[in-house]
Amino acid sequence: MGTFNTSLGEGLILVGFSDWPHLELPFFTFISVFYSLTLFSNLTIITLSQLVPRLHTPMYFFLCHLSFLDLCYTTSTVPQLLINLSGLDRTISYGGCVAQFFIALTLGGTEWVLLVVMAFDRYAAVCHPLHYTTIMHPLLCQSLAITSWVGGLLNALIQTGLVAYLPLCGLHSLNHFFCEMPVLLKLACEDTRGTEANLFVAGAIILVVPVALILGFYAHIAQAVLKIKSMTGHRKVLGTCGSHLLVVCLFYGSAMYTYLQPMGSYSESEGKFVALFYTVISPMLNPLIYTLKNKDVKRALWNVLWRDSISR
């Protein structure tokens, strides 16, 4: 069990789901379908948000960013996973592993901050409806979107720097389907308690603080909803805010399981299935959750399809 030089030429083996060979073919089929649906649904939302003037609002501006993030995030891991499941290649270079880790952290961190921004947008719409267009000025929306990306990038730089600094040992084998932080820490040759403490603080800032802000915004929204006497108004607010809360619960819940539990209690087998949820399932569900009961998106999609059919 010696150290190996963590240079770009060193290769790592991604074990993936080879521990359960009978699951690889069903997983390949299942993930291929989900990935195709993710690409189609998120590209549809991005296209509609750009083409339909009715959707040129702050809510859909941020939803467009979320869809783009989901597209990039799932693409940073799923193609590698599909190659792994097919058995064609289970290796990744050390440089590729660090790059994948950095990209996934950047996109994930950006989405965590963006969900706070979207909660603020709903807070402004529900609690200050008369001043909503003044508050959510296009310049502010662009600034908030940039802040989300910068926050995700800073988080990735910090955490990647802490992990990449560690010397790695062993058989160069990662018991996961992509380069995830907990499994990289398990390959470290030296005591990682100090690094784990720093990573926990960084993870808590990027996860716990956004959750606290989101809960604060929704506490104010709940107070405003209780003052609405119209049942139609209740349903409309609950429809738009409920979808956002569901996405928050799904995404943050799985992320907290991975990044905020002690490394000693982290189960690699369970971790792989949890990672499937936030890399494959969640990006596919997000567009459906936001648009399933959204009349604006349904109407916009129908108008675009109808217009194209007439033009032909």
Silhouette: globular
Major β-sheet profile: 3 strands, mixed
Gyration radius, rounded? 21 Å
What portion of the residues fall into strands of 2 or more residues?
under 5%
Helix share of residues? over 70%
Give the topology, please.
Blueprint: E1 11-14, H1 21-51, H2 58-75, H3 78-86, E2 91-93, H4 94-127, H5 132-135, H6 138-164, E3 173-174, H7 181-186, H8 193-227, H9 231-259, H10 268-291, H11 295-311
Parallel strand pairs: 1-3
Antiparallel strand pairs: 1-2
Notable features of this structure?
mainly alpha, 11 helices, 75% helix
In short:
By secondary structure, the protein is mainly α. The chain has helices at about 20-50, 60-75, 80-85, 95-125, 130-135, 140-165, 180-185, 195-225, 230-260, 270-290, 295-310; strands at about 10-15, 90-95, 175. The chain has 11 helices and 3 strands; from the N terminus they run E-H-H-H-E-H-H-H-E-H-H-H-H-H.
